[in-house]
Amino acid sequence: MKGIEVRSLDKNYGDVRALRNVSLTFEENKIYGLLGRNGAGKTTLLNTITGRVFPDSGDVLVDGEVALENDKAQQKIFMMSEKNFYPEGMKVKDAIKWTREFYPGFDEEYCRNLAEKFGLNTKKKIKSLSTGYGSIFKLILTLSANAPYLFFDEPVLGLDANHRDMFYRALLEKYSDKPFTAVISTHLIEEVAGVIEEVVIIKRGEIIRNQSVEELLETGCTVSGTAVAVDSAIQGKTVLGEDSLGGLKTAYLAGEIDSSTLPAGIEIGKMDLQKLFIHLTNE
Amino acid sequence: MNLQDERPIFVQIAEYIEDGILSGAFPEDTQIPSTTEISVWYKINPATALKGINLLVDENIVYKKRGLGMFVSTGAAESIRRKRKKDFFDNYIDKVVTEAKKLGLTQEELAAMIERGYDR
Amino acid sequence: MNIKSALKYQIADGRVSIPVFYLVIFCLMALIPISASGMGPEDSMSIGGFEIATIIFLFVVGLNSFRETFRMMVQNGVSRKTMFVSFLLLTLVLSVGMSCINEVLLWIGKAFTAGKGNITFQSVFEQMYAPRYMGNPDSIQMIAEGLLFTILACAATMMLGYFITIMYYRLNKVGKIAVSVGVPAILIIGLPIFDAVVTGGIIYRALGQLTLFAMGILSGYNPYYAMVSALIAFAVLASLSWMLARRAVVKD
Fold it and tell me: Which label site among A182, A193, A271, C236 has the fewest CB atoms less than 10 Å from its CB?
């Protein structure tokens, strides 16, 4: 079976339950958004899949093969970590050289072009790069690796608006050209909302949503109007959250509401991913 | 096009292409932008872009030439105009009339207001 | 495929340090004729022990072979097992390679100092096992046994360095302090005092005997004892290292 299959992963750091019975599948050739607040377990999940850390229990399969300590399986994944894993004194061009050594599908020409486009100086030491260029360096390596599964952990950290734009475009271009599975872990949701097809929301180590963006958005709506009217309209519904401003109120509902039965002055709006996320992951 | 719009992105994509056909930017029997081009330009998932285009395929506004891409159908502009006129009535005229009734405007008064709008 | 890449990476890691090391060694050797020219007829000089430099160098290589390499391997989808096997291969390559170079240097040194009666150029091995080669110094047998001895000594010390570095990587802060303070305290202060006061020197005498036995001195200067000892030490250290490396995780 193609894809990455995660089966009941548990991981504790002392008293902190970083992952709780996490099961999910990253299917072939889809772009996933792995969304969660800081410390929700996004990085731990990706680190466990790539064998950077060990789970307490559960396992991971890559294309049907056990992923842990399996070179063949791990070679199909390239993960861009938020942290730097390259040696202290290594230069960008040496990192490129070695990535090509370990990932035979590495596209050097594409890598060079992308570096030029982003203005990344490959002669510099990785350590001396700014936060933004540190991210850019790792993004470029990841996109060039030509692995079937690409993990991006906080990919746009420190990037300015232009570079963020360039990254999303480069990702989509590459994806259209030759599809792969991308998992983008981020808390900047608005930006990736259109890019991702599937969404996984993680909260305190637990997966609370795992479905297509479209489906997820269809399952919610906003109801706004005067506080009194809104309160009566949302009775008996699952309310994710509320915002009030004076006598006005907006309620965020998990589920549809029948607009024909609503009193006048009440408006129904579409839920957007950002709003939904905020209300789903509120403590 | 404003993707912050409340309507689904794929609907907006379809509308953007329709606008292009109406304005003559995409004449009949010419190629429209590819899924990739739309996806990269608007920074949206190619699946969403494809869904938008498929909406137009279903309405026979564009058609597929195997191996070449999507092309504007003959009479596409006309059928878009027809559809939009109907939508215009459903979405705007209906609302205008409802609101006018609420305000106690007569049909004549409303007609006069519309005329005034044209004069501006 | 992966093992090859991982080995290539680790060898490339030494592309600066190894040439520098030999540059220093060559400079030292170049000093021999210079200092010899300043010697009077009464003076004598004994030179040697370059293999000790090699052994220390490889110990340091071992010490530097885990932390950064592990992170780099993990970033590139290489398993701990592959990384460990590639380190074993690296040990083999460097121990054999550098021991051979050492042997060549030894013979260059001998050639330079030949005929100069008051200068002797010897390896530590020759000095330790001198009685064994009394009748036929510089024989093929001595070269072969010396080479084998150096290779195994190099491999064992390199593995010792690797073991120490992984142990430190795996230990938490408290553990690191405990080992850093505890081990020297026991070896340098605790044990000597205990031996002197309580056991009356028995422990140190026993350790001395054990060393002599392990080196083959007690068995008629037999270097094969030392080789087997080095091999055992290597195997034990490698096993311990693997036990620690296989569960190593990336730290921030």
Answer: C236
Amino acid at A250: T
Chain B residues within an 8 Å CB radius of A162: none
| Cβ–Cβ below 8 Å for C77 and A75 | yes
Q: Does the residue C251 lie in any domain? A: no
pTM (2 decimals)? 0.89
Positive or negative, the CA dihedral A8, A11, A15, A16 is negative
Residue B43 has pLDDT above 80, yes or no: yes
For residue B1, the model assigns a pLDDT of 43
Q: How many residues does chain B have?
A: 120
Residue B2 banded pLDDT, cuts 50, 70, 90 = very low
Considering the domain architecture, whether residues B68 and B92 belong to the same structural domain is answered as no
Where residue A83 falls (left for φ over 0; alpha for ψ -120 to 50; beta otherwise) is beta
Q: What confidence category does residue C67 fall into, taking pLDDT thresholds of 50, 70 and 90?
A: very high
- Take residue C190 and report the two structure tokens written for it: 């605790």
Could you tell me if B64 and B31 lie in one domain? Answer: yes
CA distances from A58 to A28, A44, A185, A241, C243 (A): 21, 14, 21, 34, 22
Cβ under 8 Å to C: A residues 2-61: 47, 50-54
Do B88 and B45 reside in the same domain of the chain?
A: no
Compute the half-sphere exposure of residue C121: CA atoms within 13 Å on the CB side of its CA: 21
DSSP alpha helices (H): ranges in chain A? 42-49, 71-74, 92-102, 108-118, 131-144, 161-177, 189-192, 213-218, 227-233, 273-281
What residues of chain C have any CB closer than 8 angstroms to a CB in chain A? 2, 5, 8-9, 68-69, 71-72, 74-82, 246-247, 249-250, 252
**Beta A198-203 vs A149-153: how paired, if at all?**
unpaired
Residue B87 lies in a domain: yes
Spell out which residues of chain B touch residue A31, defining contact as CB-CB under 8 Å. 45
Please, what is the Cα angle at A148 between A146 and A154, to 5 degrees?
85
Cα R_g (chain A), whole angstroms = 21
- State whether residue A20 is helix, strand or coil: strand
B90/B32 same-domain check = no
The tally of domains found in chain B comes to 2
pLDDT single digits (tens) A187-224: 888 889 999 999 999 999 999 999 999 888 888 888 88
Nearest to C88 by CA among C235, C220, C188: C235
Cβ–Cβ < 8 Å for B47, A31: no
- Name the residue among A117, A119, A181, A130 with its Cα closest to residue A157: A130
**What is the spatial distance between Cα B73 and Cα B28, in angstroms, rounded to a whole number?**
6
Q: What is the pLDDT of residues C108-117, one digit of tens each?
A: 888 877 776 6
* Bridge pairing between strands A65-66 and A57-62: antiparallel
Backbone angles phi, psi at B75, to 5 degrees: 75, 10
Burial class (CB in 10 A: 0-12, 13-18, 19+), C192: middle
Q: How far is A218 from chain B (nearest CA, A)?
A: 10
More confident residue, C25 or C151: C151
Domain containing B28 equals: 9-76
Query: In this structure, are residues A69 and C79 in contact, taking their beta carbons and an 8 Å threshold?
Result: yes
Query: How many domains, chain C?
Result: 1
